[in-house]
Amino acid sequence: MLLKKSYLSVCCSIAFISAFNVNAEEIDSQTTERIEITGSHIKQVDLESASPVTVIDAKQIAFSGISSVEELLQEMTAAAGPAGNATNAYWTSNGYATAQINLRGLGIKRTLVLLNGRRIVAGGTGANDSPDLNMIPINLIKRVEVLKDGASAIYGADAIAGVVNIITKDDFSGAQLTIKTGASDKGDAENQEVNLTLGGNFDRGNIVVNANYVNTGNALQSERNSCPLTEVDGKLECFYSGSTIGGRATLSDGSEVQFNQNPMADGNSYSTYNNSEHGYNWFESLNSYSPMKRFNIATLLNYEVNEDVQLSTELIYANRRSSQIVTPRGFAKVNVASDFIYNPTGQDLTLKNRRNVEVNNPEFFQETNTLQTNFMLNGELANDWQWQLSYSYGRNTGTDGWSYDFNDARVAQTLDSSVCSTEVDAAIPCGDYFGIGELSQEVIDYVTYRREGSGGNELRAWTGQLTGDLMELDTGTLAFAAGIEQRDEKGWRKPDTVAQQNGDEDAISGAYQVKEAYIEFAVPLARNTTWAENLAADVALRYSDYSTFDSDTTFKLGLTWRINDTFMLRGVRSSAFRTPTITELFGGTNTENLITVDPCAGATGAIKNNCVAAGVPVNFTQDGSTVKTSVGGNPSVAPERANTLTLGAVWQSPYADDLAVTVDYFDIEIDNAINSVAGSNMLRLCYSDPVAYAEYCNNIVRDENTYQVTEIEKRPMNAANEKVAGIDVNVKYKTEYNSYQLALNWDVTRLLNHENTAFDGAETEVLLGKITADRGSFSKWKSNIQISVATQDYKFNYSIRYIGKADDENGGGPIGSSVPSVFYHDIQASYAMSNDLIFSAGIDNIFDKQPPFLTSTNDANTDVFTYDTIGRRGYVKVNYDF
Question: What is the dihedral of CA 129, 130, 134, 137, to 10 degrees?
Fold first, then answer.
């Protein structure tokens, strides 16, 4: 019944069906070679696709000056929300410094990343959710094809928002050296890159070897923002963390005190805590740009075994070393007796929120090693059908941690007079944590340790495929593709022993196997009629059987209607699904400090009343922007399912051969969506209706004296639904004037709807036109335009990126309650001194556009997932072919 309804949906909507042409530059119009493009397993000469595909070729990538794949992809108008990159210091589900792509703002787990049409191993520091794009050297890329449509029937689970297929240079011949260096105009965020590509043909094939080294430097947040800001009476004021130098305590009489912060003052002094006087400026220990060193090496081989069989192999290895500065470490709150030798108050107290500046600033560090291999045999049968067998193996391992951490259990020992001693060289020294500079080196050595965890991911996949022409019809060739796949994936995470003993992190270990079979048909329906130059349908069906869940079947129904040489309509109706990741299913508890907005601070209306009813004071203010959040897995979580619809049209100008306009409508609806409700939303929903959202309220812990949120627990669950819809527009134009080649490429995305419902009966959260504290911007408009002018020796490119205005989801004062539209301007230029030597230079954010202030407290005082926090920066680059 579902298939029948979907088929009718496509047929009845044919007047609005979408269209998109693969770039003319990519395919020689005279070739008769059958080529497979993203979105179909059927190799065809006619490359008109029923799904919208954006192609970014090697020339565009090289001229952009971009050194990483994620930068290239995250600037697309279809990309939105957190995905992880070097320009922010945030932890993603793949760990610090990993890089992914987030299409449609639906999350990295709903965008499938492929390498040459095949899955690649997840990357990070253990039990991760998607590949780390850092593993792919930018100069090895031939083109990137971005399918902005659901494609589970073609590629299996996870392809809900779309597919990114990275195609490598498997036919390169020659030698090319690229050297690049750059920095911000503040002299930081340095970037150096060296890339060497060697390739050549031999008697029966071709081999390509690529080596790539990238080194990115540090940029401090304090160089760009002196302090975190909050809005008070329509003015911006510094807002400091409640975790303070010298430490705070709650006394037995209920008072909140701050211990001495002046190294020259009385070490035993203390006073009533006041944030504006005692708070800590954490911007001094925050990156805007994370240091990273990355080394990649790749070898691609094509070998003709005989006239009918070809062997292809891929081997890619990547090593990434990255780090971020962090604020001085703290420890869990500890109860201290009134008669403890160093307690200056004479009362029992709870010591908490201490910034241990006596210890050198710690540094997060990560190192990952990723290996991805593929072996593929291609052949042709006597009836011209083509077969393919391939085996892929990928393994990622990583370690991470920080240089200094505090052992909570040992801290408690040093504050217990029945255990610790003040004697010289005591086995457990007593610690004076009451005021700055009081900690002895003996105590520091006893309570600190180097925290280090490890983990990894592994992928094994077998595939077999057969494709060819079934028969010739009056309307054209009926073609098919069929195949089977088996994929085994596992992930693991071994926490630091001390961290595990203290309950900060649990071990993770999980695995699953999936067996799949698929079939796809390209059906010619009409040709050379009065109403259609060509009409064709794409039909695909995939059966998936998971070891951890029941089986599932997905479908794709596509239609392409070329009315004439200038106008074409096409569209796709498909189903898709996503299974829970290993962390969502098998993950234990992991404690993180996540950005969280407490709605009780400055609350009005019903939220204010509910906060007061819960005991939160009317004049409550939040200490800092992060809250300790326990995240982990849920063994009861089930797969989510989606239905996607793509409709649109393309117009090729009859007056200008190189002018084309494409319009695509997309609609994605996810049912039973896997969702971990963010802490900010959990708090907001709890205090908007404590009865309806009692489950969320039960996951929130407040300090009984200060009413600060001290802990939130969030785990994945199957929510009711999530919906997103919008329109993509693309305009391409090329022309020549005398010796000048002019080109324009303009992408626009208009978001029409983005909403989600946490569970049946819950409030529907409307994200359209909103900007959030932790999920990025959902502005209605986004646009990218590139204009280039080229001669035989020179090339100049000017780019403008536009992000539309949006309202803060959490409200706020008049300054930060909404953010204005933002324009970023980039320029690039190159000069060919000879056929072999090219000099390039570029400036990004040439007007040094500063990110807008956002009320929802974020590090950098803005949405780091959306806006540029580095500022103006430039680079120079040399390419030499030899």
Answer: 160
